[in-house]
Structures are given as structure tokens and as C-alpha cells.
Design brief:
Elements: H1 2-16, E1 20-26, E2 34-39, E3 44-50, H2 62-65, H3 78-81, H4 85-89, E4 93-97, E5 104-109, H5 113-117, H6 120-201, H7 205-232, E6 240-243, H8 244-259, E7 280-284, E8 290-293, H9 295-311, E9 318-325, E10 330-337, H10 344-349, H11 367-377, E11 381-386, E12 391-397, H12 408-412
Parallel strand pairs: 7-9
Antiparallel strand pairs: 1-2, 1-5, 2-3, 4-5, 6-8, 9-10, 10-12, 11-12
Length: about 425
Amino acid sequence: MASALARVSRSASELINADTIIGLVQTRPAASWHAYEFNAKGEALRPPKQLVHKDPSHVPDLEELIRPGVRHATHLGAITDQLSPTAQRAELQVVPMVAGWGPTVVLLMDADPHTALQHETLVHAVTSTWATTVAAASQQSGLRAVSEQLADSNRRLTDMQSRLVEAESLARLGELASGAAHEMNNPLTVITGKSQLLSSRIKEPENQKPLSEIVSAAHRLSALIDGLHFFASPPEARRTQVDLALLVERAAEAAHDRLGVGETMLSDDSSNFNAQETPIGITIDPVAEVIYADEESLAMALTEVMANAIEASPTTGVEVRAQVRVDGDRLEISVTDDGVGLTDHALHHACDPFFSDKEAGRQTGLGLAKARRIAEMHGGFVELARTPDGTRVSITLDAWRTGSQRPAQERAA
């Protein structure tokens, strides 16, 4: 619209020596009028301005705005009062532009086309051409907007279909996990119990080790079934007031404890890598010192993410940062490491259940999958991204301010 009116302004300057041109535009009946001001070169004198009318419930139409016989802008009263000082000082003529379609446009110019062109037919031809140009621009802009809306709708539809397919898959997975847990836990209990009983009776060292391996494997399989069940059918988040700094510190300790008992690291020089010595730096935005969340599940999610970061064998350590994002007042808890990084394949599938870039048997591949489900329990999501030095995993929460937050002084007391 602005580009078309700028072209009209240049044309008016060339044909009738107009130096100041204002386009009053109403895109549809009862819509607000907007003013576009240009100089003789078609340069905008200021951004388009929406005009305010005395009665907001009634916006004048073309017939009311341009009464029969009105040729001078001084008759427009409150409208000219809202124009720039330069336009208010000019002797503006009123020129309606009617194309028969498109928006309603009225030109205010400091030259009279009827005097300059000296022929009513010529004036009508010129103003009709201008009106058609603006109408075509408006139609093109409208088509572009409709096209963008359609593309956005298609994207959202595709996303919803993907989410529906995933939800159906998770529902089937939940039924499978429930059935597996029911059918497998009983024999696992028997295996664990009998192994422990045998371990207490058999004293030979060469037999003690195989028995302890059986017990450990049974516990791992039971934990795997529990993790799968949690991923497929997570409980509802039970939000309470949580000290975020303490929660992050607790998760960091849990990640260190988990990996400090002989877990194999991912890097080639893992034999020299000590998970307990990996520093975890924590920075908390003061605004987010107290949040409302499910403390146990959020700590579990952060533990999984930090454990992954430690396993990447970072050079300088792991950085945890909690801050409030400006887009939508969301709380983002990011975990960044300068370790081995992610492949393209891992970047797209890291949150899939049972996916792991490690060798078979080293990880179950449920850690980030559970973290994503926990974020979704809180109305949020998980994002993975490469950094120049490694990887950043962010847990973003939407509804984290629920309830009233205590001042820092009260919490300290």
C-alpha cells in the first residue's frame, strides 16, 4: 500500500506539480482510516498514522468524508488536525479516487488536478489509474497475507498431525509398558530374590561375582521397565513452591553420584576421566529464585541432562544457567558443555526413547526422553542445539509463576 501510494505521489508531482500528497485509506467499510504522507519524490514524511474519530463506534465512510462540492481539506476538520504540521499549513485539495473495487482512497494535495489538467475527462482518467494502482496493490498484499496464513495453517496442521501420531504411539507404548511391567516384574522379583538368597548361602568368591551380576542385571531391567512406563504414561505434575538453586544443586549432585561409580565415559580417553571432578557452574536469574514446579520430576529431568553433559567429557566443565526468556515470559534452564558434541543424527533423535549414540549396552537411551516428557508435564519443551564448543540442552517451562513468590529476604530468614 505504501509503495503504491508513493508511486501515485510521484505521478501527481510530475503531472500537476503537487509537492505534498496525503493518502487517506480505508481498507474496508467501517474500518479505521489511515493517513500516508509523501513529498514530491514519493518519500514518506512519517510512518502511516491511524486517524482517531470523535465517535469510535462510527467511522465515516467516503460519502460522509467527501460531501458534494467539498474540494478543500479545511472542511475535513478533525482529520487534518491529525496530520503533520507541514500538511496542516499547506493548501490541500480533496481528490477522491474510486476504482470500483479495493480500498477507499482520498488524496489530499497542494495542487488542484482540475485546474492543472483543465479537462474533467483527463482528471477522471488519471485518478482512475491511480485508484486502480492502489487497489491492485491492496489485493496483492491481501493475497500475500492469505497465502502466509494458509502456509502457517498448513504448518500447524502438519505439526498437530505429527503430535497426534506421536500421542497414539505413546498410548500404545503405554499399554505395552504396563503389560510388560506386570508380566516381567514378577519373574524379575523371583530372580532377584533367589539370587540374593543364593548369594547369602554360597561363600565361594568365584560364585559370588556371577550372582551379584545377576542381581544387578535384574535391577537394571526393572529400572528400564519403570523408565519406559514413566515415559509412556507420566504422572500429572504436582506443583509446589521450589527453591530453584537448591533443586539444581541437588540434581548436579545426583548426576555426579550416578557417574562416579564406574560408569564408562563416551570419550576415547575415558579411562583417565573422572566424572566427580567435572565442575558444574550454576547461575540463577534472581527473578527465578522461587518457581512452582513438580520438584521430584524436574530434578530427575535436570539430572538426566547434566549426566549426559558430563558423559560428553567436557574440557572445562558444565554450565547450568536459569533465566527468564523475553519471548512469552518463559523460564529456560540450559545445560551447556564443551564436550564431544552431537552428530546430525543424534541432534534430531536424542529425545527419542531408546536412542543412544553410544555403543550397545552402555545406555538405555531413556534419559533425554524422560526429560522431554517431564518438560511437557510442565507445559514446556526441550531443545537441543550445537554451540561453537559443544552442546546446549534447554528445558523451557511456561507456567512457572503459578502462585505468589516469596521475597528473597523471607526465604533467607
